[in-house]
Amino acid sequence: MLTTKDHVIASLINADGYISGEKISSSLGISRAAINTAVKSLRAAGYEIESSTQKGYRLLRHPDIISAGELLPFLPSERVLTIHTYDDVASTNDTLKQLSFEGAPAGTIVIADHQSKGKGRRGRSFDSPHDTGIYFSYLMRPAIAPSDASQITAWTAVAIRRAINNACGLSPDIKWVNDLVIDSRKIAGILTEMTMESESFMIDSIVIGIGINVNQVETDFPEAIRDIAGSLRMTKGENIPRASIVAEMVKEMDKLAESIPGSASIYLDEYRDACLTLGKEVSIVKVHDSGETPRHGTAVDINPDFSLKIRFEDGHEEDLSSGEVSVRGLYGYI
Prior knowledge:
Distance between the termini: 44 Å
Shape: elongated
CATH class of the largest domain: Alpha Beta
Order of helices and strands: HHHEEHHEHEEHEEEEHHHEEEEE
Structural class: alpha+beta
Largest sheet: 7 strands, mixed
CATH architecture of the largest domain: 2-Layer Sandwich
């Protein structure tokens, strides 16, 4: 449910200058006293709001918060109502899976300011510090075969690349299959988890988890990953409002959900263009055989199902799926 405070902050953001209490009162259908109470609450939360008897209210500065009120200027109110924001969760994917189990509709979103147990692929953790990143999960209930679900991760990489570009003008590269990279540093990752009907073996739900490093500086990252982790701020040289990125993510993920299963070629072409794995020598390790000696080859193409075509030294080629192998650059992360 949207609160008076949400509507007031949205009105102040949209005003881009002074807006009278009378105008806010009229547009929202609430009393001037309720507006004054909301303004006091917003100030207590860190919003710097100037007030003038003659001119009304003006927003001077607002904290980098992802909230319904911060999203309302960018998205329809009915869309914002399906977005659940939290200060802290163990995992946005786990939280959304529980909501899905309780009957949440497709398109439901969970966003947290911090994850205590953020998840990456292969059981790895995803570093999720407070106040600097975006930790976002999106619920789909697509009418597709389970064998086609693996492509959604690659589609999502394209969608999030577009969202970042729309919000701040940066165009990350894609490291096959699910990492977004700028200047050889990972700035985002994607984890897709699927549940199936026990009797029909059809897809019940797909939860897509997306983590983006937005305003971290290098020392914010654990030392073990400091040489390969990056953020949008590290590239842009300035803080980027997270709510503006989230709004673009919602728009692009909604487009993706509406496109399934029909527009794979659009995503495939853009994925190929952005994939920095192509043309590189890579090291390949089977996911379920950690004792196997890595094989080396060259990534030569992305197939229509988003599997990776590898050419080995003897000239033969193999198509590898992300569920079977892990791929790294021969000379480093990329």
